[in-house]
User: Which sequence fits this backbone?
């Protein structure tokens, strides 16, 4: 066993402030809602106090976005909009180390993921959409596609900065203005992004960022002057939003939960597959909507694969998110940790075989050791419900038809993975699996040029790529 010396990143790089304010109409202002305290999930310490929006603040932000849309942003040539979006991308790169450390402090994810995945991909989304701003007439939506107006956007806590970029960049490129509500437990990088937006001299009101709890998101979604709603989060909340907007003229996209199947055939390169399985479920502590939380293994190689998987998972290091050696960081909140523990107990109670890594866990903070369940049936809760944590359920199959049937036996449909040496089998599976994204011999690969989204209870609409522009255009 390798012994890793601690390699902590300095938290001073985050430039953490004791207080953060909401961003409305180009200024940082005190919200009139009840302030919230954001907590470091790795230590349970309070990081900062954040002012939140009231219903009146939401109204002011939407009115500011409407003014900016009517007077400036919708009238600005795409070539000029592109310059602002490109400038935001460059500033994200310049402040990348600060953003990465702050993200790990506020969210709990390992610094190597914040540094190597979240921040670079956030910048990439702004770069990519800056390129579209003056080419919308060539996107396939008619010779002169028009923006929608004000976009109300609500994002989750698992990828706070990346989800903000994922939402804001296409909206701006298409000529819309934005009011964004970050998650209650992870508002800090969104507010630093507001600093970057101010630093980029974006016209006041084009982007507004209003922290708060679910009631702030509800006020934003329900506001009569919002033309477009984009939500990423739980399926239950997505259903509430869809009911609320039914019969209105608001355009809606929902990116919700998932219970992805990661399918391994007997001809797959097993060592490579093990790495993909580990990345698929233990990346970001399993806090990923498209996590490969259901592993479907062909029966003839199931025992061999499980043995290799347990050996590999036992090497994962759980601990301080700011340590560059950490593989699995902290669960984002006590509430989420409790949910994970409850579902794991149900798996044991229903007869699945639990294997949990013997890795040591820190004394403080919200941590959960990587866990693999075998002998899982499709009727068990751990095979049906989204756990949103570092917990893998393993099922077996004998034939490709059975693999498809089991993969599709879920109310979700966000993503899937296929591991095999046969290209024809990959295409055959991809055509039959009801999932918005199907990865072949890899998992969790994201690119701003590729559309992402789901079916069924995983939501509807696509984000990213040329296809994702449609959600922000009047077509």
Assistant:
């Amino acid at each position: 066993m390798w012994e890793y010396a601690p390699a902590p990143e300095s938290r001073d790089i985050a430039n953490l402030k004791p207080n953060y304010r909401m961003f409305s109409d180009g200024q940082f202002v005190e919200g009139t809602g009840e302030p919230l305290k954001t907590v470091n999930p790795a230590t349970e310490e309070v990081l900062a106090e954040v002012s939140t929006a009231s219903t009146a603040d939401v109204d002011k932000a939407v009115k500011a976005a409407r003014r900016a849309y009517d007077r400036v942003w919708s009238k600005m040539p795409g070539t000029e909009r592109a310059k602002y979006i490109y400038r935001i991308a460059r500033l994200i790169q310049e402040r990348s180390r600060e953003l990465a450390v702050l993200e790990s402090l506020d969210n709990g994810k390992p610094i190597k993921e914040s540094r190597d995945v979240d921040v670079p991909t956030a910048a990439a989304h702004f770069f990519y959409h800056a390129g579209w701003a003056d080419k919308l007439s060539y996107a396939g939506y008619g010779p002169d596609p028009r923006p929608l107006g004000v976009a109300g956007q609500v994002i989750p806590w698992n990828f706070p900065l990346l989800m903000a970029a994922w939402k804001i960049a296409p909206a701006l490129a298409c000529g819309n203005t934005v009011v964004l509500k970050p998650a209650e437990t992870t508002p800090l990088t969104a507010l630093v992004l507001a600093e970057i937006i101010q630093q980029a001299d974006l016209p006041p009101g084009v982007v507004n960022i209003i922290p708060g709890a679910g009631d702030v998101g509800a006020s934003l979604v329900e506001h009569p002057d919002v033309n477009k709603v984009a939500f990423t989060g739980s399926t239950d909340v997505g259903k509430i939003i869809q009911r609320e907007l039914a019969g209105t003229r608001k355009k809606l996209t929902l990116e919700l939960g998932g219970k992805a199947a990661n399918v391994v055939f007997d001809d797959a390169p097993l060592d490579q597959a093990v790495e993909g399985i580990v990345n698929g479920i233990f990346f970001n502590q399993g806090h990923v909507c498209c996590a490969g939380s259901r592993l479907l293994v062909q029966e003839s190689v199931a025992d061999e694969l499980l043995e290799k998987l347990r050996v590999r998972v036992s090497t994962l290091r759980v601990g301080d998110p700011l340590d560059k050696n950490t593989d699995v960081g902290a669960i984002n909140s006590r509430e989420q940790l409790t949910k994970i523990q409850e579902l794991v107990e149900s798996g044991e109670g229903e007869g699945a075989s639990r294997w949990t890594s013997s890795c040591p866990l820190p004394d403080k903070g919200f941590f959960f050791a990587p866990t693999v369940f075998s002998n899982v049936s499709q009727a068990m809760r751990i095979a049906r419900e989204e756990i949103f944590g570092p917990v893998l359920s393993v099922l077996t199959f004998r034939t490709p038809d059975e693999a498809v049937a089991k993969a599709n036996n879920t109310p979700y449909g966000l993503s899937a993975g296929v591991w095999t040496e046969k290209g024809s089998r990959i295409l055959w599976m991809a055509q039959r699996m009801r999932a918005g994204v199907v990865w072949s011999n890899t998992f969790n690969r994201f690119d701003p040029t590729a559309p992402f989204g789901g079916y069924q209870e995983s939501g509807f609409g696509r984000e990213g790529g040329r296809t994702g522009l449609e959600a922000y255009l009047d077509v």
User: Anything to note?
Assistant: The longest helix spans residues 111-132. The mean pLDDT is 97. Residues 11-255+455-474 form a domain with the Aldehyde Dehydrogenase; Chain A, domain 1 fold (CATH 3.40.605.10). Residues 169 and 380 are 40 Å apart (CA to CA).
